[in-house]
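TA notes, week 10

Several of you asked for a full example with nothing omitted. So below is the full record: structure tokens for the whole chain, then the designed sequence directly under it. When grading your own attempts, check the secondary structure regions first.
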């Protein structure tokens, strides 16, 4: 199941550019200036993948428009099961952006930042804010190269992030069990895991949403009401 041989062909990439759906534009020029000191992200609940140190390091690479936004856990395999369809369902009603983090069978932590919510799509979507990252063990971040716009594509049986020459920067199967990572033109990334094919032990999808109360959620407030 979920073998990498079932990856979509590169021929789809050429079509997908025309199929790209409208996405949010780049942040407005009057967006808030980057604070001098790092702003600690507010997590609605604890992460089972990332520790406080990893969260702090990652937050420094997020776009300025989400600095100080709260992180609400929209999906995790320990609670919602290993199912890509379930991940899409939990994303409904969210516009994003989303931080996807996972740990594999080797204990390696890596993932991706998507400028918008993860969803089913005919073609690739997203913006140049999208990036891949890996803690190996120090954080490495792979930003958009500008060489193509193959950011995110969601099928029923696979989720792909970054592409080029028939390879995907990050690829997950429909069971959220098997995955793959290869260098790709979109991000000029290294293999995120210790091997090109891996098994997922834990996966979380965090929605980064701005809240009127400074990113801190009142105890009685459901995190999703802030999206």
């Amino acid at each position: 199941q979920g073998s990498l041989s079932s990856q979509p062909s590169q021929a789809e990439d050429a079509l997908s550019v025309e199929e790209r759906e409208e996405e949010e534009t780049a942040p407005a020029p009057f967006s808030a200036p980057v604070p001098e000191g790092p702003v600690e992200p507010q997590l609605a609940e604890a992460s089972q993948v990332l520790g406080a140190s990893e969260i702090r390091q990652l937050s420094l690479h997020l776009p300025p428009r989400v600095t100080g936004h709260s992180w609400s856990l929209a999906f995790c395999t320990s609670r919602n099961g290993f199912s890509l369809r379930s991940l899409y369902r939990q994303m409904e009603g969210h516009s994003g952006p989303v931080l996807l983090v996972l740990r594999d069978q080797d204990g390696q932590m890596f993932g991706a930042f998507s400028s918008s919510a993860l969803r089913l799509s005919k073609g690739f979507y997203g913006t140049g804010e999208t990036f891949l990252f890996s803690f190996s063990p120090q954080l490495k971040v792979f930003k958009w190269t500008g060489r193509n716009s193959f950011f995110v594509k969601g099928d029923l049986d696979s989720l792909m992030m970054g592409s080029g020459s028939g390879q995907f920067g990050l690829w997950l199967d429909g069971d959220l069990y098997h995955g793959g990572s290869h260098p790709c033109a979109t991000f000029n990334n290294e293999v995120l895991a210790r091997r090109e094919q891996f098994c997922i032990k834990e996966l979380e999808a965090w929605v980064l949403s701005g809240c009127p109360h400074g990113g801190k959620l009142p105890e009685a407030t459901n995190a999703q009401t802030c999206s």
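Residues 10-36, 212-227 have pLDDT under 50 and may be disordered. Use that as a sanity check on your answer.
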